[in-house]
Input
Amino acid sequence: MAGHSKWANIKHRKARQDAKRGKIYTKLIREITVAAKGGPDPADNPRLRLALDKATSENMPKDTINRAIQRGSGTGDSANLEEVTYEGYGPNGVAILVETMTDNRNRTVADVRHAFTKFGGNLGTDGSVAYLFNKIGYIFISSQANEDELFDFAIEEGADDIENTDDQFIISCSANIFSDLVEKVKSNGYEVMNAELSMKAETTIPLDQETSEKVIKILDFMDDIDDVQEVHTNAEFSDELELGV
Output
């Protein structure tokens, strides 16, 4: 089973997202649009299938979903979105990786640079922190599942780890088997509450409460930028901060 720190970091990120649900539709529309560039049929496009699952779970209207697919696949109004990743450092030298989707690189880099400098960080060069992260799949399973059976099944299917957080199970796996594993989990009758690809730091930097609060501020500010899709860090937040949330 995984250590406490991984779930603490995931939980803090989830809390930030849940507090900003007004931005979720915008993020999902961008994700669907970009994913649809790989083809409009989710049966042949795992990334689009995952994006559609998320949109459905958020009760996004079908018309909105269809328009995003059409834009991305070129059958509707064209969308000039491209994926750009920015790298930098925050307080105490923690690494921060920012995934964006933008139709204007100049605007986005200016906004991201401002977010770094506002809180004492700095925007780095390409490759300055990306090497610290690996793309990992996370599958969130209902706590009603039998833990032993789920563990045996997931490990047999190639999962790296399973964590029991009391209110749900989290299966982690490599990105290359993620889509197949999500489908296998569903077909075996497990209730998938959410599934996503994320960037996991190979090593983390433990922070005290004061520095944790500073890093949370920069992550919050960064996440509020319209073009930002996801923000990742190798910060390991203080337990005192968690207890205070």
